[in-house]
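wait is this the right file?? whatever heres the structure
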C-alpha cells in the first residue's frame, strides 16, 4: 500500500505519526508545505518540514508544537543579550538542523535532497518532500499592510486581520521531484488535518498539484481540522471567517470539493454530513481529536478505510 499525504505543521505531524503505526513507514510519502519557510540570521528555516521530521523521529516538543523536546536556548539568549531580535524561538539542537540545511543548500543541493539527508540522519523512514525545491513564500495581506508569514504568525501572534494570502510565484513553480508521481501512484492520498489556507493552500497552488489531485479524486480523502466550529490549534477558524468561508467542517469540505472524493469529519459534526454529501463527497464520521498515540492510530485506520484501504 502506497500512501501520500499533504501536510502542514503540528496537526499533520501528529496524524502522520499515527499513520506510520498503521502503514509501513517506507510506504508513506508526505508532501510538506514550505510557504512558511524564511531566512533567520542567515539560516534557512523550514518550520513545517522540521516539525514533521522531529515528530516522526520522536524528538518533537509536544508542549509547544515546535522545536525539539528538552532543547536549550543558550545561543538565542546570547543573541538577545547582544541586541538581536529574539521573537523567533530557536533552540540549540534545532539550530544545528538549520545550520546543516543552510550549508548543504549553499553547496548546491536542492531542498528535497537536503530533506532526504536529514531524514536519513534522524532515522525517519517516511519520505518527506518539500512541495517545491524553489522558494514559494506565503505573503499575508492584512488590514495594516503586507506581512511575511512568520511576522504575522509568530511575531504578531496572528493578531492582524487578514484580507488575503498570496502564494508568491506558486503558479509558475515546479513541484519538487517526486511530488506528482507520489500523488499519481498512491493507493490513497490523504489531506492531513492542517489549516486549509496557510498549510494546504500553498501546496495546492504549486503548478500541477491541484490538477494531479483532480485526476485521482476517488482516492483522495481529507480530515477536517475544525470540530464543532473550533480549531484544535492555531488560527484556522479566524482565518476562514476573515476570508469569507464558513468556519466549519462543511466550509473546509467546500474548499476541497473539486479534488477530494471523501472526507472524515468529527462525530460531533454529524449534522453537517448531508451538506457535505451534496458537494459530491463521501462523508465519514470518526473521533478526530488526536490527544493520544492511540487516538492518532485509530484515526489513521479510519481514514485509510475511508479511502478503501485495509491494513
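ok assuming it is, sequence goes like this
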Amino acid at each position: 500500500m502506497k500512501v501520500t499525504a499533504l501536510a502542514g505543521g503540528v496537526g499533520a505531524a501528529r496524524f502522520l505519526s499515527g499513520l506510520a503505526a498503521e502503514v509501513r513507514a517506507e510506504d508513506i510519502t508526505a508532501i510538506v508545505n514550505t510557504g512558511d519557510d524564511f531566512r533567520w540570521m542567515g539560516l534557512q528555516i523550514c518550520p513545517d518540514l522540521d516539525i514533521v521530521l522531529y515528530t516522526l523521529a520522536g524528538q518533537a516538543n509536544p508542549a509547544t508544537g515546535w522545536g525539539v523536546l528538552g532543547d536549550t536556548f543558550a545561543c538565542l539568549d546570547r543573541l538577545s543579550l547582544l541586541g538581536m531580535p529574539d521573537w523567533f524561538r530557536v533552540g540549540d539542537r534545532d539550530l544545528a538542523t538549520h545550520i546543516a540545511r543552510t550549508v548543504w543548500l549553499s553547496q548546491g543541493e536542492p531542498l528535497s535532497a537536503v530533506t532526504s539527508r536529514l531524514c536519513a540522519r534522524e532515522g525517519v523512514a517516511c519520505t518527506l518532500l518539500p512541495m517545491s525545491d524553489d522558494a514559494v513564500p506565503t505573503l499575508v495581506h492584512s488590514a495594516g499592510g503586507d506581512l511575511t508569514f512568520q511576522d504575522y504568525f509568530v511575531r504578531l501572534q496572528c493578531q492582524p486581520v487578514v484580507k488575503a494570502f498570496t502564494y508568491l510565484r506558486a503558479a509558475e513553480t515546479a513541484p519538487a521531484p517526486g511530488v506528482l508521481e507520489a500523488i499519481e501512484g498512491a493507493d490513497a492520498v490523504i489531506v492531513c488535518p492542517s489549516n486549509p489556507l496557510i498549510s494546504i493552500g500553498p501546496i495546492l497552488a504549486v503548478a500541477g498539484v491541484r490538477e494531479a489531485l483532480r485526476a485521482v479524486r476517488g482516492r483522495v480523502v481529507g480530515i477536517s481540522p475544525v470540530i464543532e466550529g473550533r480549531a484544535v490549534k492555531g488560527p484556522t477558524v479566524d482565518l476562514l471567517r476573515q476570508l469569507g468561508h464558513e468556519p466549519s467542517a462543511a466550509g473546509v469540505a467546500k474548499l476541497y470539493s473539486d479534488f477530494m472524493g471523501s472526507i472524515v469529519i468529527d462525530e460531533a459534526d454529524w449534522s453537517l454530513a448531508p451538506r457535505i454529501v451534496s458537494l459530491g463527497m463521501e462523508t465519514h464520521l470518526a473521533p478526530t481529536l488526536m490527544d493520544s498515540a492511540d487516538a492518532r492510530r485509530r484515526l489513521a485506520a479510519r481514514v485509510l478505510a475511508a479511502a478503501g484501504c485495509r491494513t
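The longest helix spans residues 92-106. so i think its the right one actually
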